[in-house]
Amino acid sequence: MKLMTQVTASVTYFAVACLALPAALLAADTTTPPAKVVAITGGKLLTVSHGTIENGVLILADGKIAAVGTARDVKIPKGAEIVDAKGLTIYPGLIDPESNFGLTEISADAMTSDLAERSDEIMPHMHVADAFHSETELIPVARLNGVTNAVVAPASDDSIAGQDIFIQLYGSRQQMMLATDVALAMNYGAEQRRRGNPQGGKTTYPSTRMGLITELRQTFLDTQDYMAKRDAAAKKPDSSFKRDLKFEALIPYLKGERPVVIGVYESYDVETIMHLAQEFHLKVILNHVTHTQEVLDEIAAWKVPVIIGSIYDAPRANERYDAVYTLPAELAKRGVTVAIASADGGGPVSSHSARNLPYAAGFAVAYGLPYDDALKAITLNVAQMFGFGDKLGSLDVGKMANVVLANGDPLDVRTDVKQVYIQGVAVPMVSRQTQLRDEYTR
Amino acid sequence: MGSLRRMLLSPQFPPVILTLVAVATCTTLGRAQQSAPTDIVFRGATVMTASNGTIEHGVVWVHAGKIAGVGATVSAPSSATIVDATGLWLTPGIIDPHSHSALDGDVNEATSPVTPSMHMIDAFDNRSADLYRALAGGVTTELLLHGSANMIGGQAVVIKNKFGLDRDAMLFPNAPGSIKFASGENPKRVYGSRDQLPSTRMGNFEVMRMAFEDAKHYMADWDAYDAKVKKGDKDAVPPKRDLKLEALADVLRGKLFVQIHCYRADEFLTEEDIAKDYGYKIRAFHHALEMYKVAPEIAADGTAIATFTDWWGFKDEARDAIPWNAVMSMRQGVRVALKSDSDDHIRRLNVEAGKMIHYGGATEDEAIRMVTLNPAWIIGVDDRTGSIDVGKDADLVLWNHDPLSTYARAMKVYIDGDLFFDASLPGWGTTHFNGVMHEGGGFGSDDDEGDGQ
Fold first, then answer.
1. What ipTM, to 2 d.p.?
2. From CA A26, how far away is CA B82, in angstroms rounded?
């Protein structure tokens, strides 16, 4: 109940919504959210898909968006719980295109890490779904700043690191995993040459970029060979055929049915890995690309979507200070579909900072990305890249009711998120951090 | 501020039109050799003074590198160079009280837990690209600290970020000396992994006490010698000079500001106890992520903090970090600064300050002070820089948006009245730098290499 008093005291005009909290708290561990109709009225709606609506009305029913429009156009259903959002800005829940939620807890404590299987570079049969720790403290922390969904990917150690999941940041473990094995996490560049030893000493294959690419090409060829044998065995039962989980895992990606997210940083590495991807007709999403300033036109010509992260990666010595900051704007200008990830600069991805996702998008605005593109880069574009374009990412009828109410511009660091709805449930605005705050507030 | 807020909240806020008039010396590369104009007047900006609130459409007059006037009007000479700053924001230069930039990774002399005679100036690389990137983020002063591998690390160097000038010209003149202490996981890990003392917090603090006992003994030897000389004893033999013990003696004599890396509430209390036992003051706790738990106790001792805004969970001792720490501690009377400890975050400390409005409701004044005047106090240069006040160094930043918003870019950065960065220039935007920048090396954090990881 401490939570209740804290919320109601600080946000008086939100009193009506707060009445919903006990129900929401109870719902946390049940399988179905309450089938309730909520009308959010009087606020500014950033729909992402069809502009801004002042004095808008948003109806949430059965976990979905039932209506969206102006006060004049939308009729409030009888019995709906009214949430007065006057003075607030309302926008779709933010989606982080690359996170490690549930794969790490305390970065320095290796025993809390399930980030990457380093025994081999080719690990497509590693499923993030198997390791996902849904009770991680990182999730409520990010959720409080309006992040409602995320892609969870393994760390970047391996050429093929495993398969991602697409989650929502609330509910039971099963509810949270909206989809498993949604994309294949690939990486290419200096980091994956880890078996090489520049100082001499023990070196095993693959220790160079040549080795990495050859190993990948052989793996894809072997998978195609496996697919042929598998198809043959399906037609004519053959007891000598044995299922191979590694190859099985690669099949949907070699068929182009699901996307391959390729983490790569340098211009020349992007060109190399894209040639390989095209050779095998992979459905590519490029990731990172923070040092590809020389090949932006090429990237645009490939017509692949791009995740930029971290926008805070340091430029090279002798580059202008904003060489990376301007990348989202430069790509968008060339017609590339851009998503922005929450990763901090200067180190590996850590989703402890995922709550700063909207600020990374705002930073891209400061360096030339149009505001609407920036908001899309952390909502609709991400949803579309990972097959959720019809379910998430904008305030449209029929989509999941993942909605954020804030006291201002979502991309501004000064803005305070007041309430988050996930599938229509008013999520308790509580994390271990707010509990500590309240415990020590004198 | 109301209209500004509305503008920022608009999904398509209008681009700010920069009316940058005639800083005549700033349009060609040749100007690098020219000296700054004696008198500069910034006109029309929203002036955030950090000491006396915000002045809308304010005027700031710089004379000979110092602030000579600030207000609605000033009485500057007509010969002054006018900078039309209409639609822009003017703040004091950003000050980072915890940086490891420009040291090429030479952050920790992690070969002994007590290394007070190390001087960071010996590793200072004034051509590091990290200095340039910080300058482009409005950073004008930095405290370059030893890392946190050792209980008693080395002595810091204070720089003015006059990127492009030679090494000596970048030192903050007559800045007080600071020394870095550390406790907790880093020294435990570094020495524990070698089966050496200290591998626990018990060992951490006893190592410090033993070092100060050595220093007291050394000081007593010198006192005895000085007394003999005073008495006219011509045969008195001076003790051997020991750089390590002299540095520790300087701590006990109060000649060095003590800057302590630690995270947990219990460590703040233990450190204060040890400081009282040996008679020195602690200037600031750095990181200090649990200060919100014991803020009144520490406020009473007058120790400030230099903290992260919202980093947490990267190690066990950062598990209880909360983003409200800074404002909660401030409300309990602790002087609070934000710091980078990172070559990344140093480029956007103004935005970090903006988060304090969100996390705990700091006023804009309080937030801007956390990256200007308060870090200046921690370094001991608050009488010279850190606010826009008459008589202070003209370390100033012009921003295209409210500097506490996500959207702010530093457009011009002045140090001692001289322009060092101008975003409107092609290339780097630097006005004094020529040649080749050096890669910084590492991420510029306490945990950087040399730490025994």
1. 0.91
2. 64
User: Letter for the amino acid at B426?
Assistant: P
pTM of the model: 0.91
* Tokens, residue B286: 């750095």
Task: Supply φ then ψ for residue A419, to 5 degrees.
Answer: -155, 145
Please tell me if residue A375 touches chain B, with a CB cutoff of 8 Å.
yes
Residue B449 has phi, psi (to 5 degrees) of: -60, 160
**Does A352 contact B at CB distance below 8 Å?**
yes
- Asked if the A95-385 domain carries CATH number 3.20.20.140, the reply is yes
Measured distance CA(A59)–CA(A123) in Å, rounded: 44
- Contact call for residues B288 and B271 (beta carbons, < 8 A): no
Among B136, B355, B404, beta carbon nearest to A321: B136
Q: Which helix (H) or strand (E) holds B305?
A: strand B304-307
Which residues lie closer than 8 Å to A47 by C-beta, 6 or more apart?
A: A53, A68, A92, A394, A395, A396
For residue B400, the 8-state DSSP code is S
In the stretch 254-283 of chain A, residues with CB closer than 8 A to chain B read: none
Q: Do A414 and B314 touch (CB under 8 A)?
A: no
CATH code of A2-93+395-440, in short, is: 2.30.40.10
| CA gap B410, B400 in Å, rounded | 7
Q: What confidence tens digit (pLDDT) does each residue in A62-108 have?
A: 999 999 999 999 999 999 999 999 999 999 999 999 999 999 999 99
What would the DSSP string read from start to end of A314-377?
PPPTTS-TTTTTTHHHHHHHTT--EEE--PPSSSS--GGGGGGHHHHHHHHHHTT--HHHHHHH
List the domain boundaries for chain B.
94-205+240-381
Of B138, B136, B139, the C-alpha closest to B98 is B139
pLDDT cut 70: percent of chain B above it = 90
Cβ A353–B355 below 8 Å, yes or no?
no
With cut-offs at 50, 70 and 90, classify the pLDDT of residue A35: low
φ, ψ for residue A167 (rounded to 5)? -120, 160
CATH for B94-205+240-381, options being 3.30.450.20, 3.40.50.1820, 3.40.50.170, 3.20.20.140: 3.20.20.140
The letter for the amino acid at A362 is G
* In chain A, ranges of CATH 3.20.20.140 domains: 95-385
Best mutation target, B132, B264, B358, to test chain A (most A CBs within 10 A): B358
Tokens of B224: 């005895």
Residue B446: the pLDDT is: 75
pLDDT of A259 higher than 60:
yes
pLDDT tens, position by position, B76-110:
999 999 999 999 999 999 999 999 999 999 999 99
User: How far does B220 lie from chain A, in Å, by closest CA?
Assistant: 43
Q: Name the more confident of B102 and A4.
A: B102
